[in-house]
Write a structure and sequence with these properties.
There is one protein chain. The protein is built from 12 helices and 15 strands. The chain has 378 residues and is an alpha/beta fold. The protein has 2 domains: 120 residues, Alpha-Beta Complex (Aspartate Aminotransferase, domain 1); 240 residues, Aspartate Aminotransferase, domain 2 (3-Layer(aba) Sandwich), CATH 3.40.640. The strands form 4 sheets. It has an 8-stranded mixed sheet with strand order 2-9-8-7-6-3-4-5. Strand 6, helix 6 and strand 7 form a beta-alpha-beta unit. Bound molecules: pyridoxal-5'-phosphate (PLP). The site of pyridoxal-5'-phosphate (PLP) has 13 residues, from helix 3. Its cofactor is pyridoxal 5'-phosphate. Belongs to the class-I pyridoxal-phosphate-dependent aminotransferase family.
C-alpha cells in the first residue's frame, strides 16, 4: 500500500526513532567520533569499556557479583535471545513463556528445538502473571522461565512480591530465569523497576537489556545479556554461550561505542516519561480514546510503549483477528497487530504502540472506532 503512495498510520511496532524521538545527541556524536576506531572486530563478547559500563549498571540495579566476563553484547537483545536459547535447549526441553508474549521468545524457543509452554497473564489483575498457572505448567522437562518486565505487549510492571514468588518457583524447580528488562526506564506515574536478578543469588538469571528503547536507538542494534546468580550448574551452558558468541565474531562495534556514554550520561528518557512528558501524554490520550469506544476495555500501561486492548466478543465476534487487522488496514489505513500475534489465546485483543504524535494517534484511534462501528453492524 505504501508503494502505491498510501499513507499508513503505524501503531504496530515499537520502532521509537521512527516517530520523531531522537536518540541522545551525545551517543550519536560518540559513534561518529569513533567510527574509525570501530573498524576492527572487538572481543567477541564486546569491548571492555562498554561491558564495564554495563557492569556498573548492574550494580546500580543491585545485581550482585557481576564481572565483565558475565556480560555479552549483541546486535540487539534479539540476537542474544536467539543465542541464549540455542545454547540451552535440547529437543523437547520446555521453556515457560508468558501469554501474551513478545513473540520472539516463543519463536526462539521453538527454533532451538524446545517447546514454548505459555503461562497466563491475568488481565483482570492488570496483566500480572498467574503464579498458580506457572506452577501447574512446570514439568520435569522445564528448563527455564521467561519474564518480560516491564511488559510488551501489555504495558504491565510487576511488583516485587510477585517477582519473588516467581524466583521461589525457579529456585524450587531449578529453572533458569530469563529476565527481559529492555523497557526498564520507560516507567510512568513515578513507579520504579526492580531487576529480578537483584532478588536472589541462588538462582541463575540471564538478564536482557539494551539501548533500543530507553535510548531511542533501535537501529543501532545494541543489546546485552548478563549472567548472574547461581552459576554452579551452568558451566556447560556458559561454555555454549561463549562458543556461540565467538561464532558470530562480535556484535556491531560502532554501536558498542554508544553504551558507556548512554548509561553514564543524562537520562533524557526521564523527560519523556515525566508527568507531562511526550510519552506520558500519548499514553494517556490513547488510553482515553480507546476506552471511549463502546465494547473496548484496556488496562492502562504503567510502563513500556504498548497497550493491549480487549474487544468485547459479544459486540465484536471476531473469528480471525489477523484478517480483522488486514481489514482495518485496508479500510482505514491503520496498522495494528492482532492479539494472536502475541500468542494470545483468543481473537479478542490487539496491540497498539503509543509512539505516534498526538494528532496521528487521535486520527488512528478515531479510524479504529469507525471501523469497529462498521464491523459491529456488518
Ligand atoms: N524484548 C522485548 C520485550 C522487546 O519488545 C524487544 C523489541 O521490541 C526486544 C526484546 C528486542 O530489542 P532489540 O532491539 O534490543 O533487539
Amino acid at each position: 500500500m505504501e508503494a502505491d503512495g498510501q499513507k499508513i498510520i503505524k501503531l504496530n511496532i515499537g520502532n521509537v526513532g521512527a516517530f520523531g524521538f531522537d536518540p541522545p545527541d551525545e551517543i550519536v556524536r560518540d559513534m561518529i567520533k569513533n567510527m574509525q576506531n570501530a573498524a576492527p572486530y572487538s572481543d567477541s563478547k564486546g569491548m571492555f569499556a562498554s561491558r564495564k559500563a554495563i557492569m556498573q549498571y548492574t550494580q546500580q540495579k543491585n545485581i550482585e557479583g557481576v564481572t565483565i566476563d558475565d556480560i555479552y553484547i549483541g546486535n540487539g537483545a534479539s540476537e542474544l535471545i536467539m543465542l541464549s536459547m540455542h545454547a540451552l535447549l535440547d529437543n523437547g526441553d520446555e521453556v515457560l513463556v508468558p501469554t501474551p508474549d513478545y513473540p520472539l521468545w516463543t519463536a526462539a524457543v521453538n527454533l532451538a528445538g524446545g517447546k514454548a509452554v505459555h503461562y497466563m497473564c491475568n488481565e483482570e489483575k492488570d496483566w500480572m502473571p498467574d503464579i498458580a498457572d506457572i506452577e501447574a505448567k512446570i514439568t520435569p522437562h522445564t528448563k527455564a522461565i521467561v519474564v518480560i518486565n516491564p511488559n510488551n505487549p501489555t504495558g504491565a510492571l510487576y511488583p516485587d512480591e510477585l517477582l519473588k514468588k516467581i524466583v521461589d518457583l525457579a529456585r524450587e524447580h531449578q529453572l533458569i530465569v530469563f529476565a527481559d528488562e529492555i523497557y526498564d526506564k520507560c516507567l510512568y506515574d513515578g513507579v520504579t523497576h526492580t531487576s529480578m536478578a537483584s532478588l536472589a543469588n541462588d538462582v541463575l538469571f540471564i538478564t536482557m537489556n539494551g539501548l533500543s528503547k530507553n535510548y531511542r536507538s533501535c537501529g543501532y542494534r545494541v543489546g546485552w545479556m548478563v549472567v548472574s546468580g547461581e552459576k554452579k550448574y551452568a558451566r556447560d551452558y556458559i561454555v555454549g554461550l561463549d562458543m556461540l558468541s565467538s561464532m558470530r565474531l562480535c556484535s556491531n562495534v560502532p554501536g558498542q561505542y554508544a553504551i558507556q556514554t548512554a548509561l553514564g550520561g543524562y537520562q533524557s528518557i526521564n523527560d519523556l516519561v515525566a508527568p507531562n512528558g511526550r510519552l506520558t501524554r500519548q499514553r494517556d490520550l490513547s488510553h482515553k480514546l480507546l476506552t471511549d469506544i463502546p465494547g473496548v476495555t484496556c488496562v492502562k500501561a504503567k510502563a513500556a510503549l504498548y497497550m493491549f486492548p480487549k474487544l468485547d466478543p459479544e459486540i465484536y465476534p471476531i473469528e480471525d483477528d489477523k484478517q480483522f487487522a488486514y481489514d482495518l488496514l485496508e479500510r482505514e489505513k491503520v496498522l495494528i497487530v492482532q492479539g494472536t500475534g502475541f500468542n494470545w489465546v483468543a481473537p479478542d485483543h490487539f496491540r497498539v504502540v503509543f509512539l505516534p504524535n498526538s494528532d496521528d494517534l487521535t486520527h488512528a484511534i478515531e479510524r479504529i472506532a469507525r471501523f469497529l462501528d462498521f464491523y459491529r453492524k456488518k
